[in-house]
Amino acid sequence: MNERAKDEMILFAGNSNPALARAVATELGIPLGDALVRTFSDGEIQVEITENVRGGDVFLLQSTCTPGNNNIMELLLMLDALKRASAKRITAVVPYYGYARQDRKVAPRVPISAKLVADLITTAGASRILTVDLHAGQIQGFFNIPVDNLFGTTVLLPYVRERVAGEKVAIVSPDAGGVERARAFARRMDATLAIIDKRRPRANEIAEMRIIGDVEDRWAILVDDMIDTAGTIVAGTDALISAGAKRVLACCTHAVLSGPAVERIAKSAIEELVVTDTVPLRDEAKDLKKIHVRSVAKLLAEAIRRTHNEESISSLFDS
């Protein structure tokens, strides 16, 4: 069993995104902490922290992506184990915060799942949360502990700017809810802003789409926080092409890409889809050449380093 110095920075990870965890550890110049996270034959998860963390400043990296329920349970059990092992402070590093789309009551008898998950994480032992691009910024208020919500734009923007250098560009929000994100992107790109007005009859179904703004003879860059089934982004691409856009590039922080998403993107007129590694790509997505991945490892590592050193991380919020 490894002996740790008091207040030492220690990084642990669950099984949700091992590649990102290793990359963050490399950026920090530290090894990943020793922990066993296994599943019994009946599906129950077993966690054992196999090194001393007493008095340590612990960071636990775990995205709550697919399989979301298993990954959330891993996160909760690891938090509880670290708390019971007397870690001084435990920061839950959750690059992708699942259940974030269930952030309010949209019908009389439904849960506010994003709030429930926040309560579970806090009760399990997290002292603070570090995440990237919450689906709704107001979710920070669901926690009674500090929340640092970083922006994937800081990783996506430099690549996109270089990709369309010298072109006339329109930044496009796929819906009204994403206008603030698209406007910030457009301001830093010195580009015009457009919005797709859509009528969605039910979840994961797209109806009529109208383009508000000028996209004719421009590169249209669709900007969103996540892409799930890709129905919105593909239908939006078709609408932009019909409105005269020269080419369409899409970017998002969280490449959830569930169900038919990869097939839809492959068949679409999207020139390139730029994403981050907050969520590990499915195998079929890795084989699709039009998907380009930018890593948030350096961003997370710097936020972890500053948190550990009790330094300000406000400059990292500048998208």
Description of the structure:
It is globular and about 60 Å long. A 7-stranded mixed beta sheet has the order 10-9-8-11-12-13-14, with helices on both faces. 30% of the residues lie in helices and 25% in strands. Helix 1 crosses helix 9 (297-308) and helix 2 runs parallel beside helix 3 (113-124). The chain has 9 helices and 14 strands. The protein has 319 residues and is an alpha/beta fold. It has helices at 18-28, 68-84, 113-124, 153-163, 179-189, 231-242, 261-267, 283-286, 297-308, and strands at 9-13, 35-39, 45-49, 57-61, 89-94, 128-132, 147-150, 169-173, 192-198, 209-212, 219-227, 247-255, 270-276, 291-294.
- The neighbouring-strand order within the major sheet is 10-9-8-11-12-13-14
What structural category arises from helix and sheet content?
alpha/beta
Q: What is the typical, i.e. mean, pLDDT? A: 93
Described by the principal axes of the CA atoms, the overall outline is globular
Helix content: 25-40%
Count of DSSP-assigned helices: 9
What are the segments in which pLDDT stays under 50 over at least 5 consecutive residues? none
Encode the helix/strand succession as letters. Answer: EHEEEHEHEEHEHEEEHEHEHEH
- Approximately what portion of the residues adopt beta-strand conformation? 25-35%
Distance between the termini: 41 Å
Radius of gyration: 20 Å
Sketch the major β-sheet. 7 strands, mixed
Tell me the total number of β-strands.
14
